[in-house]
Amino acid sequence: MNRRIVAAALITASLLMSACSMTGKVDEEREETARSAAESVETIETSASAAVTEPSASTSAIASVSETSALESETSASETSDDMMPADEEGVPLVESDAAAFFASTADTYLMSSGAGGWGAYMVVNSDGTFDYNYHDSDYDMFYICHAQGRLGNVIKVDEFTYKVEIVEITFEYDVDSVWSVTEPDGSVINYTAADSYGLHQGDILTYYVGGIESSLLPEGYLFWYLAPRALGPENVPDPFPLSGYYNAVEEAAYIEDDYE
User: Fold this and answer.
1) Of 41, 101, 115, 145, which is least surrounded by CB within 10 A?
2) Using CA atoms, how far apart are residues 99 and 225, in angstroms rounded to an integer?
3) Neighbours of 162 (CB within 10 A)
4) What is the pLDDT along the chain (261 residues), one digit of tens a residue?
């Protein structure tokens, strides 16, 4: 046989064997790649399932913080609501300059008397909010008196005709229920008993009604102290009510502007 033919045949056979070998490797690599891809898909699906059914630690932490923040917000809102001023105390606190203007414009003498007996009380409110209080009554040879000095403050404006004012200070000249006697130059003896004030004590909240308010907005306890000393009936209450005054709703004591000649 010709050597060239033999050589060509050997080369061809070698090439065929090499091609087959390469084809086998390619097939193996393809199979390996397919297996890897399948495993990756399975891993991804498993991870996704776990993520859906079991939140991660960071997700749980975020959810926990959100729930805590919501609870704190509700608690804070509740506390703020609880700390709000009661309904009958609602209004706008006046700053110092506005409070000073309020007292300057309302400085006056305010009276309280039932018109029965010889007793009466009055408070003289000065333009700086300080006041002097005097009460007197008598029973045979005994005189009952009360003298005090104090200061009003913490003014709250409820509306155009209504204010809230606190008695921030009050000092009594005599101890309540103390008794003493005074001998006059003519030899007569006067006996005194120290009485308590009516509706004026430290910490009391007084309502100040401005003259011009609708009389229907005023409490009966306030109007009584206008009608009684004038011997008037409820049908005689003027509307609008012309006089200003302080009212202690707890003790139903009213000190109304002096309009007597």
Assistant:
1) 41
2) 26
3) 16
4) 444 443 444 344 444 444 334 444 434 444 554 455 445 444 434 443 444 344 444 344 434 434 444 444 444 433 433 333 333 457 999 999 999 999 999 999 999 987 766 789 999 999 999 999 999 999 888 999 999 999 999 999 999 999 999 999 999 999 999 999 999 999 999 999 999 999 999 999 999 999 999 999 999 999 999 999 989 999 999 999 999 999 999 999 999 998 754
Other Cβ atoms less than 10 A from the Cβ of 206: the count is 22
In degrees and rounded to multiples of 5, residue 187 shows phi and psi of 95, -10
**What are residue 143's DSSP bridge partners?**
138, 192
Measured CA to CA, the distance from residue 198 to residue 251 in angstroms comes to: 8
Burial class, 38, CB count within 10 angstroms (exposed 0-12 / middle 13-18 / buried 19+)? exposed
Chain Cα centroid distance, residue 149: 31
